[in-house]
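Pinned message: reference record for DUF6382 domain-containing protein
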Amino acid sequence: MEEKKTNQQSRVAESELIIDSVQPYRENYQMRMLKNNRIPGLLRVSGCGMEGASRYYYHTGHAQSLETYYKNKDIRAEEILKLTRQFLSVMEKMKDYMLEPNYLMLSEKYIFEKNENYFFCFFPENEKTWQVSYHELTEYFVRKVDYQDLESIQLACMLHKETLKETYDLESILQQYEEEAKNREEKSKEEKIREESKREKDRREMEENQNIEVQENSYYNKARENYAVMEEKRYGPIKKFAKRFKSGKWGEWEDLITEADDYE
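Predicted structure (tokens):
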């Protein structure tokens, strides 16, 4: 494989990615097609020969490479899906211009992000198939994935595993993941509904038990009050009689007879 050296230079109005190759420059129909057309999802490129070697200029504008964009943060499932979907869309558009998809550089250094859109480098001296290049990109996903998010882990690992084959259908892999993710989401919602239903049932049972306890306390308090009233009616005169007897103050004989009659 030819040796490649890369560097990135900034200019006043825009930035450029420059790729040098030791191979002689060839102005083939694909480079002419890229010069004469603006293809969505591809960085504008121009090339030239330089002392028997080649130099390619990619106009990145203010976009950042994945390497820079995710330097201090993790990549999540929705971002991996969006990048991969846009990659498939770019390959589909390239067919209209008879461009070879194997010439796309699928490395975190050569994929650029701007306003949630991704842009790819077309390098006519790339020797890898896009399937091999994408699998290598999934290794980057696995390293940079958000390990706090289960869906992100599952997607990155699934893509890495399924793209180990020499040939594979990337669209089918994405559809398989999305179906499995939908089933997991529905299952999670069902479990959440069951948990909320159980909590609501426990709450109602607790309220019912509290109401029963309040009713029982009210009943017992009322019973105690009624009992106290009955006790007072039955034994009140006797208590007065006994109190007078102990104190030696009998009072009038008529009162004593009246109290005794009340007791009877």
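Pinned by admin. Summary line: The radius of gyration is 43 Å.
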